Amino acid sequence: MPLFDRVKAGAAQAVQKAQEAGQAGQAKLNDMQAARHLDGLFRELGAAIYAQHSGTATTDTASTIDRLYGEIAAHEAEHGKSAAADDADSTTSSSTSTPVTDSGTSTAPAGDFKLD
Questions:
Q1: pTM for the model
Q2: Residues sharing a CB contact under 8 Å with residue 79, sequence separation 6 or more, in sequence order
């Protein structure tokens, strides 16, 4: 009987570890979904602000911008500091490269540009 007890305890421990791994995976999935939602809010906000500056804004663009600011603030209150701000901090602090110019007739534009 002691062998059966050890097998039973080992199986119970394996089930517990599998449940913990499942919970960790679910938490990671929830974090990724929240980050994707926040990214969508920032994209929509950027489009609305661009519309304002380019003169193509509609009558409800200002209210859309206010709504998006509120949704972003609510998201940050619920999930903590925004993931986009973390990404921006890491890219601005680590990207100190200087644009390379070739010996041709074109020159590199001034500034630090990054394409996604």
A1: 0.57
A2: 34, 38
